[in-house]
Write a structure and sequence with these properties.
two-stranded antiparallel sheet; single chain; disordered N terminus; 15 helices; mainly alpha
Length: about 450
């Protein structure tokens, strides 16, 4: 039996042969790209703050951080451009049933996302090569359109996903998509909350990850002003985001109750509609029985409905054929919430201690906690996307188009999946090698690494 024949056996009966590889490839490439997208959204704002501090306070440490972070941002942007291009091709290659039928509906946000990408690239280049060639304040302003473009591009992509959860801007007559209103599709009922959730998550990922790098340097004995400021600024951004995120997530959860009861039931591991509904921590559903869950009375109603006794729908409220993968959805959702709660608590404890005159950063245990916070924030974002996407199954477009109908019929997608794995592995290794090389040269005292393809250095502009 050949490799193709073996892979075909993995597809369930009645499913198109391209469904499983399409799901695997999209999950892998989107999960990989989303981390880089977070840096495109949040990193320009963080750089702006340290750069402005350097100009206003004439602080060489802050200016040095801004210059280094700009070069890191350039490396991540270059790699993200590749992975983002792969994703754009995957939409048509993997999901022809979606794009072929709803391409006119979704064309507007994809077009704006492409324009945003070019604007971000242009101003990143100007900012990167503007050191010493532009007046300082004008140079600083280059970060504003760069940051706005990253936010707009992310909003456009998130709007497509929000549209899948809240389809709008079209009608279906005799099986044909008609009355297309791309603006209504782009600004659908779920876009603002879902974007806010992702936007805040981006600052958590970037803030905790960058702060963790400098916390690790502090663990290695590098207790200079460079490392302390490099920790404090991104950690402050991450702290605000971590405290705000549960509020936005709570409101978004109430929207899920109104629009996708099966997803909420999977989140709560609720088999039947309960009033008041408990909160189940952990646990799995096996043969109709819940095992290993810690049940907290009434808390499910409080979280999902803002009520002590309001009912939370159970899986029995939807047909069995429309259940999402319950255990995966439940565990992904609880991982996101649990990690988010831990990160918020970490931020609150740190700033309360600092307000009372106690710097937790001097303790090794807190430095290690700060180091781990970055990977935990990434896991939380990935878990949130798993909960969102898997919890919507079996639908690609909620109550309109199933994932099986959207997927390609080609069995050759396994080969493109293997190719994507190889390409992304190469990009990962390349990014690690380049960034480690840059960090090593900075530690050796090389303060001004050359930018690739940049013009020769000149004297600073007054």
């Amino acid at each position: 039996m050949g490799l193709t024949d073996t892979l075909l056996l993995l597809a369930a009966d009645g499913e198109p042969p391209g469904l499983l590889p399409a799901r695997q490839q999209m999950a892998f490439s989107l999960g990989w790209h989303i981390v880089l997208a977070c840096f495109g959204v949040a990193f320009p704002t963080v750089i702006f703050v340290v750069h402005r501090r350097g100009i206003v306070r004439d602080d060489p440490v802050a200016l040095g951080l801004a210059q280094r972070w700009a070069k890191v941002s350039a490396v991540l942007f270059a790699i993200g451009a590749v992975s983002g291009t792969v994703l754009s091709f995957e939409m048509g290659l993997l999901w022809p049933g979606l794009m072929g039928r709803f391409g006119d509906v979704l064309g507007l946000p994809f077009a704006f996302e492409g324009l945003s990408f070019f604007v971000e690239a242009i101003f990143l280049g100007i900012y990167l090569y503007g050191w010493g060639r532009m007046p300082p304040r004008r140079h600083l302003l280059m970060l504003i359109p760069m940051g706005i473009a990253g936010i707009v591009g992310t909003f456009c992509v998130v709007s497509v996903n929000a549209w899948m959860n809240h389809p709008a801007g079209f009608a279906i007559r005799d099986g044909e998509v008609t009355d297309v209103n791309p603006w209504r599709a782009m600004f659908n009922d779920g876009v603002w909350l879902q974007f806010a959730h992702m936007w805040i998550a981006a600052f958590m990922v970037v803030g905790f990850t960058v702060a963790g790098v400098y916390a690790f340097g502090l663990l290695r004995g590098r207790t200079d002003a460079h490392h302390r400021l490099g920790f404090t600024v991104p950690f402050a951004f991450a702290s605000v985001a971590a405290v705000a995120q549960p509020v936005v997530g709570h409101v978004l959860g109430m929207l899920v109750h109104d629009t996708q009861p099966a997803k909420l039931a999977a989140f709560e591991l609720a088999q039947t509609t309960e009033a008041p509904a408990p909160l189940r921590l952990g646990g799995v559903l096996i043969d109709g029985e819940v095992y290993g869950a810690l049940t907290i009375p009434r808390l499910g109603s409080i979280i999902a409905r803002n009520s002590l006794d309001a009912p939370v729908p159970g899986l029995d409220s939807v047909p069995r054929s429309q259940w999402p993968p319950v255990n995966l959805t439940h565990l992904a959702f609880q991982s996101m919430v649990g990690i988010g709660t831990l990160l918020a608590a970490t931020a609150v404890v740190y700033w309360l201690a600092r307000w009372r005159g106690r710097d937790l950063l001097q303790y090794r245990w807190f430095r290690w906690l700060a180091v781990v916070a970055g990977p935990l924030a990434i896991v939380a974002v990935e878990s949130g996307w798993v909960a969102t996407e898997v919890g919507r199954q079996p639908w690609t477009v909620w109550q309109v188009l199933t994932t099986a109908e959207a997927a390609s019929e080609s069995s050759g997608l396994w080969w493109s999946y293997i190719a994507v794995l190889i390409i992304y592995l190469g990009m990962t290794v390349g990014a690690v090698v380049v960034l480690r090389s840059m960090a090593r040269r900075w530690r050796a005292g090389d303060t001004d690494l050359p930018s690739p393809y940049g013009p020769p250095r000149t004297e600073p502009v007054p």
